[in-house]
Structures are given as C-alpha cells and as structure tokens.
Amino acid sequence: MKIAYLGLGIMGRPMAINLVKAGHDVTVWNRTPKNVEGARTAATPAEAAKDAEIVWICVADTKAVESVLFGPNGVEQVLRPGVKVIDSSTIAPLATREFAARVRAKGAEFLDAPVTGSKIGAENAELLFIVGGPEKTVTALEPLFLTLGKKVIRVGETGAGESAKIGMNLMVATIFQGFAEALALTEKLGVPPEKLVELINSSMIRSGVTDYKASFVLNQDWSPNFPLRLMLKDIRLMLDAAQQEKVALPALREIEKVYQKAIDAGHANHDYAVTVETVKNL
Ligand code: NAP
Fold it and tell me: Which of 84, 119, 165, 213 is catalytic?
C-alpha cells in the first residue's frame, strides 16, 4: 500500500521502519528532517500525503496533530475521498472527534488508533492498537495494524480509542507510583531494591508495568522509552477529561505534582521511571 508516515519519534520511527520491512511503499515526514531507509522523504505533511492511500500519524500531542493535519502544508490540503487517516498519537478525545469531522468533510476516513507497548513494542511489532471509529474501516485495516502490532481492539466510535488509551495510562501512572513509593519506603527500612523486585515478580503484585520498568529502575537507566514530558501530557489529558465529566481522580492529582517536580528538576526528556528518584527526594 502507499503509506505516508508522519512523525518519526521514539514510536513513529520503528513503526515506519516496520511498514517498509513489510513491503509497503512508504513516504515519511518529520518536523525536524529525518529519513528512514527504504522510504521516500517528503518536505511537508501535504507532500507526503499527496498520493497516499493511508496517512498514518504519530506525533507528540493534540497541537502537533492539529498542525500536521490542518496547519500550513497540512494533510487536509490533499485529502481526497477514500484516503484513510490513522492517528496513533495519544491526544484529547474531544479534539479527536473535531479532527475526524474535518477529515470526513473531505470524503476521507479517520481512525483514532493510539497504542500501548512503548518503544520495545514498536520495535518488535508487538503493539496493541486501541481503536475508535467505524467498524467497517477498522476491519478493513486490521491486517495493516497487525503488521505493526499483536492485537487490535476496537473500543467504539471515534474518540473511544483515545478515551480508553488515557484510561490505560491512568493505570500505568498509578501502578508505577505504587512501585516508586514501595521502593522509597522499603529501601529506608533496609530491603534491597532487587529483593523487592524479586518478591513482586513472584507474587500477584507482578504487572506489565513492573515487568517493563523494574530492570531500568534497578540499573538507574533513565534513557527515554516513554519520556516523562509525554506521561505528564497524558496525566493532564486525564485530568481535563475528568473535569469535563465530573469524575474525581484524587491519586492522579497527587501524581501530577510528583511529575511536575521531576520536570522542574530537569528530567523532562528522561523516562518517567525517573520519578522513583523524585519520590525518594520528596
Ligand atoms: P517523541 O519521541 O517525543 O516524538 C514526538 C514526535 O512528534 C516527533 O516526531 C516530533 O517531531 C513530533 N512533533 C512534536 N511536536 C510537533 C509539532 N508541533 N508539529 C509536528 N510534529 C511535532 O514521542 P513518542 O514517544 O514517539 O510518542 C509519540 C506519541 O505516541 C505521543 O502522543 C505519545 O504520548 C504516544 N505514545 C508514546 C509511547 C512511548 O512509550 N514512547 C507509548 C504509547 C504512546 P521532532 O522530531 O521535530 O521533535
């Protein structure tokens, strides 16, 4: 298929590489010029999308998606009936519904398809796609999703993918905060961190979050798999949605303060796992 891939960050780059490996005809674009071996490079989102059947986006936040779609030289300028736009960024569900309506006004289709699985999942084509949009479009694109991932779950209509994704990350943030606080306390009480991890892994407390993060924490390796700045962006998406829907999220409100402290300490581009240090220093 002819695919335009827009956004070559930690997640987008391996996804674009895996599309090339799967034999697709890929054109890439990134705000800061970057190439992917085996793909053409376009100078603007519109140039990348001009002949594409699929326009796949994975950029940082809501503003970035808006600019790629509707900014100067944005995708909207070349949208035509039949084109399918897939957004794998994690952004606001409300904005997603507005963006989808503008895309559909041009006769094109739109799916919100945020992912979970982080850098390693993207590199190994083992992502989970959390999709919102018409069932027919999701079913038609399932084989394409499965070239980059292990599973596709359609949650509901447009925006439902993003809504579910922020719910998933709410769990990630709270589970990781529990891990960070347990480490801070038990270390003071004299329990070696590697013993706590061994106990976690041998008990019902084990989770995908600690499976992924514990070795990074034990090695104090804060290189970004999921940068702190993006987790804080997601925490704010959750808090905004909670305010709109009048849902109290007391634990998350405290976690937001921890992440802000970590940003203030200069950790924006480190992995969010660095909050283990922040919690210890509170
Ligand atoms: P990243 O490494 O920070 O990459 C962000 C990408 O967005 C870069 O290509 C960046 O371009 C681009 N960008 C930022 N602002 C832009 C703007 N205003 N206009 C156009 N492009 C812009 O982030 P990532 O980890 O790949 O994450 C991408 C998305 O996936 C985010 O929504 C994130 O929350 C979500 N996600 C990430 C993970 C993870 O573990 N990393 C997991 C699941 C979901 P430049 O190169 O020019 O800065």
Answer: 165
